[in-house]
Amino acid sequence: MESAPGHSGVGEGSSSSPRREPTPASSQPPPAPAPAPPSRYESQKRRDWNTFLQYLRNHKPPLTLARCSGAHVIEFLRYLDQFGKTKVHNAGCTFFGQPNPPGPCACPLKQAWGSLDALIGRLRAAYEESGGRPEANPFAARAVRIYLREVRESQAKARGVPYEKKKRKRQPPAAAAGGGQATGAGESSASSSSSAAAAATTAASGSGSVGGKGSDAPPGGSPSS
Question: Does this model's pTM top 0.85?
Fold first, then answer.
């Protein structure tokens, strides 16, 4: 009988032992989260950098990045004008200096100054990220800054803006307008018919009430004395 407490003690120890077991060494940490996709700025910077490198390869004679100077960067910016969408009026154009030209003209389309300035900023950063020395960065050359300033001033004088196609307002078809008029006429005639019917009903009810008072007398007239 005295062995029962000892037996229960062994049971208590065995029941609590699983909670003290160490974590298996084979367990692995959770996987690292997937890297975030590149931002819009980073994606655009990568595309601009690849475009510039392609321009250097197609240059005649071909150019290497080490031989690239500010003059070559300006040539690249002028090359991009053929893909521009901003009309910059010449000094002899009748629309020169007008902020909102009333119609088209023969002036060329060019890259807007703001687009070129942002492009140079992205290429300047991409050049240094690719291992280029900041003091040799052709996109930070003084000639490039002067060119951008001249583009900004010339476009400010010309007030060149892209032409926007005006959206034509959709007008309802004539049939729909005629149908609306017919519907309105039908509603007015129906309203008149309802008014006439109501008047006739009122008159009939009025005559009935007068006859009703006469019918209240006993049949056969008044009783004889």
Answer: no
